[in-house]
Design a protein that fits this description.
By secondary structure, the protein is of the alpha/beta class. Helices cover about 40% and strands about 15% of the residues. Helix 12 packs antiparallel against helix 13. The protein is globular, with a radius of gyration of 21 Å. Mean pLDDT is about 90; it is low at about 5-10 and about 350-360.
């Protein structure tokens, strides 16, 4: 555990603890920030973080796993003053069985301890439906382009195949059915079946056509980017029941690589990107619509170039890790100072616009 302090004026110091090691020490809003970093990689770490956070104004937990449930339980059992709890980018799953329904109900009780969820979705209805989180406790924060510094230096080639990949809530069944309707070659880059199942993706009972090749991969960033960069287009088939922003990291990397993107309509796209502008968006579980979209992107050069240009502009406008962490910091500071989700959301929009090209339509 270590802390850093930044002074920008005479305002009262805001004490923030988080597991974001790069939490910015420069506040656009001019507030004084004292940040304490703690890892959250075990239940023991969650216990220590809870106790240490009682002296803070806010506790920001980024990409929590099961430990967030313990943090919430400890807060419920603590009668003392508690800091604002802000959870960033939690991956939530829909209930597919009776056991998972019970788990969702339990988490919905624990999540009452969370003051604000910062998610990469604007359509918050699925989260509210499955986990009972009021929509006024969920705010949108933009995601980032992973490895943006390396990607900006690359010169991708226009390949001769379709790329799809990933492990989170991918609908490879629909993708393979769509590929059976076209003659183009495709590569599916994905880890083993067990890891896919852990993230909501099922590979069993898929009829793989001859023009589709499965490539098993350990998921390193270098391999992911290399395979994407050599493709003609990137297709991201997402399961209909997805709750979280599945596919957002993949489509931002693809766009930054100047690849036209085809993606299923899902929480990662609704009210965020526009069909025919930054990407081609197709209905879920519709192989015919997907095959037509692939056909058009492959054959219509003007349309393909438009998706490439507009997608890349959009992705690069979001920046990388530094911009993402600055957004989270600003939203946290505004929420702690005002207790308003609306203020936190508007702060995200203001911070993001500073780096957006003027050609990006809102």
């Amino acid at each position: 555990m270590f802390s850093k302090r930044m002074k920008t004026g005479g305002s009262r110091c805001i004490r923030i603890m988080s597991n974001l090691e790069g939490f910015p020490m420069q506040s656009d809003s001019g507030r004084v920030v004292e940040h304490t970093y703690m890892s959250l990689n075990s239940y023991r770490a969650a216990w220590k973080m809870h106790l240490a956070s009682l002296r803070q104004d806010a506790l920001v937990v980024y990409q929590p796993n099961k430990q967030i449930c313990l943090v919430c339980l400890l807060r419920h059992l603590t009668p003392l003053r508690k800091p604002k709890l802000i959870v960033v980018d939690i991956v939530l799953k829909p209930a597919r069985s009776r056991q998972e329904e019970y788990a969702c109900r339990l988490k919905s009780l624990l999540f009452k301890q969370v003051d604000l969820f910062l998610q990469h979705v604007k359509d918050t209805r699925p989260i509210s439906k499955h986990y009972g989180v009021p929509e006024d406790r969920i705010a949108y924060t933009p995601w980032k382009v992973n490895s943006i510094e390396d990607i900006e230096k690359m010169q991708p080639t226009e390949g001769d195949h379709i790329f799809t990949g990933g492990r989170s809530w991918r609908d490879y069944k629909t993708f393979c059915e769509a590929m059976a309707l076209v003659d183009y070659p495709a590569v599916i880059l994905t880890p083993d079946e067990e890891e896919n199942l852990c993230h909501g993706t099922e590979l069993a009972e898929i009829d793989v056509p001859q023009n589709v090749k499965f490539v098993r991969d350990n998921g390193t960033s270098d391999s992911w980017v290399k395979h994407m960069a050599g493709s003609r287009m990137v297709v991201l088939p997402i399961c209909r029941e997805t709750v979280s922003a599945a596919g957002v990291g993949a489509y931002l990397v693809a766009m930054a690589l100047n690849k036209p993107v085809i993606i299923t309509e899902c929480p990662a796209t609704k009210d965020i990107i526009t069909d025919g502008d930054q990407a081609a968006i197709v209905p879920p579980s519709d192989p015919v619509a997907l095959s037509r979209a692939m056909e058009r992107v492959w054959t219509d050069e003007a349309y393909r170039r438009k998706l490439q240009r507009r997608g890349r502009e959009y992705a690069l406008s979001l920046g990388g890790t530094e911009t993402f962490e600055r957004n989270v910091a600003e939203q946290t500071i505004q929420f702690v100072g005002n207790g308003s989700k609306k203020q936190a959301a508007s702060t995200s929009r203001r911070t993001r616009r500073k780096s957006e090209p003027s050609t990006i339509r809102r």
